[in-house]
Structure formats: C-alpha cells, structure tokens
Design goal:
Layout (H helix, E strand, L loop, with lengths): L27 E2 L11 H15 L11 H11 L8 E4 L2 H12 L5 E4 L7 H7 L3 E4 L10 H11 L3 E5 L11 H9 L4 E5 L23 E6 L12 E5 L1 H8 L9 H11 L2 H24 L3 E2 L6 E5 L4 H10 L2 E2 L8 E5 L3 H18 L3
Parallel strand pairs: 1-11, 3-4, 3-5, 5-6, 6-7
Antiparallel strand pairs: 2-8, 7-8, 9-10, 10-12
The chain binds pyridoxal-5'-phosphate.
Length: 363
C-alpha cells in the first residue's frame, strides 16, 4: 500500500488533512446544514426536462460565460444587479477559491474570524496565502470596533466574513461590514450562504455594493435551494472584480448540465422559498425545545443552531448518534451544532435530547 509519505507531495501540503465532515449514514442527518427538504416533485420534473434538453448538445462545450444563468441569478438577487456583476462556479467553495487565486497568493494575508467556516484557511493554503485570525466579541459577535482593530493589527489583503456566521448562526450588522471595507484596501468577501434564512426585513450586504468595487457578496444554492448535490455557488460584485475571476477559472468550468439544472431551480424560486419558511419554523421550534431543556442557544439567522451549556459535547454527540441523530461537534467548548430538520427530524432530535439531557447535562 502506497501512503502519502511515499509520494513527492508539495512540501506545504505535507501533514495536512482533507476537509472532513463525517459522512455517516444515519436516519436523521443534521450535521452539515444541508436543506433537509427534498426538491419538490414538480420542480424536479422541470429540472429533468431542462437537463434532457441540454444533453441534446452536450457534444459541444457549454456556454463559457453561462450568460443565461448569470441573467437569472442577477434577476433572483434583485438590487438592480446587472448580469456582468454576477459570477458562478461549482459551489461557493469554488467561487471563493477563485477569489483567493485572484486576490490572495504568496506574500498576501487572509483575515478570518474563528469560529467560522472551516474552509477559508483551506482556500488560503492552496493559494499560498498566509492566514491571520481575528478575535470576536462576547458571544461570538463582531462589532465595527473589533473588526477595524483586527484589520489594523493584521494588515490583510483578503478579509472573509460569513454573515450570518457559520457555525454560530449569528448575524453581522451592515455597519460592521462598511467599517471593515473602509479600514483597508484589499478585498472584502461577505459570505451570505444563509441569506435566505435571515429575517425578511434584514438588509443584505448586496445593498453595499454600489461604489465599493473591492466588495464581493457570495451566495450558494446549496442551502436555500436544497441544491447541495448540484454544486452551484455565485457572487455579486463590480464587473471589474468579476473580470479578475475570469483570469483564474478553468475554461468551461460550469457544465451545461449544471447550468440547465440551476436555471430550472431558479425558475421555481417562490416554491423553494416556501420550503425555507418551513425550515425557519423548525429551527425556531428546535431553539425553544433546547432552551426549555436548559441549553443556551445562540440567536440564529440560518438553518442551524449552535447550543451550549453541554457538559460533555463528545458524549452527547455519541449518545445522539446511538439514537440515529447526527449533529456536528466543532470542538467549540461546551457546544454542538445542529441543522434544522423536517418536522419529523426535529421531533426525533428533540426526543433524543430529552432522553440524553439528564446524562449530557444542561446548565
Ligand atoms: C454551506 C456553506 C457554504 C456553501 O458551500 P457550497 O460550496 O456552495 O456548497 C459556503 N459558506 C458557508 C459559510 C457555508 O456554511
């Protein structure tokens, strides 16, 4: 058996481990913030028809500029965005990788605010970008003062802020993002992977785009559109910012099949948003249930919750798994993260928590 150590690996990759959310097959999977609701049948049928159509010309390379998809994404986002302001790739993971390839690199630094999405340092590593970690305020919040102080201290070239944040679910106010933008001359990426789960009246960072050519707002169809398996992420920014990403993408990176499937899902955005509303309700029911058991639940604008006050998170994680419920242990002291389920999954999770709390202990 050959092992990694036997191969002439790039020196900076030696000793690194790959992204590793456990992929266990259990009845109630609430560990990676997927949309727990399947795509409705009628929407599926439309997507299948569009993909079948796309297969008719799959002998040709796809539209490299994914023009129709960019138009549909711009229309979906609103805010008077033009298609030239939209970029897409295979998941927002690839979109963010493009940003690092274009704006990070040797001699440059990413500033990130842990606990946050664990992939940001990975994009930095594979693009030879150094990583600086900023501190947060009490209860994982971010204030303008803290963000500006951390930017002055670490002098970054790229700042990524997840808003709302993962794994805490907590919102980030727009004045924090404005202050961050003004505090340096690199690029600010606001990762709005969970934007559709925010309260309806909460403003998006998209409203900050006019006059801010170094700002990008990243979104994904993985969460709200129940499309994690289809891989479609996107961002909105100044057209010049988008041109920079064209320099680093591989040609034809978005397959004709992906483009057709995404267009199909976007055509049914209102139906998909009704599903989002149901998930929000389950999330709130989950939060109430956890609070009544004595856990501390961080305010969430997402499709998941971070709850703390857990004496032994590893033991509670195992106990839940034994009862067929998979949640996420992110090594945050005293805390676990759980994604909002369907009504039945939420019941299963709360039942298991009720059974385990006397041992798992809430304070
Ligand atoms: C889930 C998630 C993403 C989505 O990644 P995709 O590649 O689009 O599936 C991006 N950012 C954050 C913070 C997430 O939690």
């Amino acid at each position: 058996m050959t092992s990694l150590a036997d191969l002439p690996l790039r020196p900076d990759l030696v000793g690194r481990t790959a992204y590793g959310a456990p992929m266990l097959h259990v009845p109630v999977t609430l560990n990676t913030n997927e949309n727990t609701h399947p795509v409705p049948d009628a929407v599926r049928a439309d997507i299948v028809a569009r993909v079948a159509d796309a297969l008719g010309t799959v002998n040709r390379y796809p539209d490299r500029e994914f023009t129709e998809l960019r138009e549909a994404l711009a229309a979906y986002l609103g805010h008077d965005l033009a298609p030239e302001q939209v970029w897409a790739a295979n998941g927002s993971n690839e979109v963010l990788q493009h940003v690092f390839q274009a704006f990070g690199g040797p001699g440059r630094t990413l500033l990130t605010f842990p606990p946050t999405y664990s992939m940001y340092p990975n994009y930095a590593a594979t693009s030879f970008t150094a990583v600086a970690e900023g501190r947060r305020d009490e209860r994982f919040e971010l204030s303008a003062e803290t963000v500006v102080a951390e930017i002055r201290r670490t002098r970054p070239d790229v700042v990524v802020i997840a808003a709302p944040n993962n794994p805490t679910g907590t919102p980030v106010a727009l004045d924090v993002l404005e202050a961050a933008y003004d505090a340096f001359d690199g690029v600010l990426v606001v990762d709005e992977a969970y934007a559709e789960f925010m309260p309806a009246e909460a403003p998006s960072a998209l409203t900050l785009l006019p006059g801010r050519p170094r700002l990008a707002v990243a979104r994904t169809m993985s969460k709200a559109f129940a499309f994690a398996g289809a891989r479609l992420g996107y961002l909105a920014a100044d057209p010049a910012f988008v041109d920079a990403l064209r320099l680093v993408r591989l040609p034809y990176h978005l397959s004709a099949i992906t483009q057709a499937a995404a267009l199909g899902a976007l055509a049914h955005a209102p139906e998909m948003m009704r599903m989002v509303e149901d998930i929000r309700q389950q999330r709130d029911r989950m939060a109430e249930g956890l609070r009544s058991l004595g856990y501390d639940v961080a305010p969430s604008w997402t499709n998941f919750l971070l709850f703390s006050g857990v004496d032994d998170p590893a033991a509670l994680w195992r106990g839940l798994l034994e009862r067929g419920v998979l949640v996420r242990d992110l090594a945050i002291p005293g805390a676990l993260r759980v994604s909002a389920g369907t009504a039945a999954e939420t019941d299963a999770f709360l039942d298991a928590m009720r059974a385990l709390t006397p041992i798992g202990a809430a304070r």
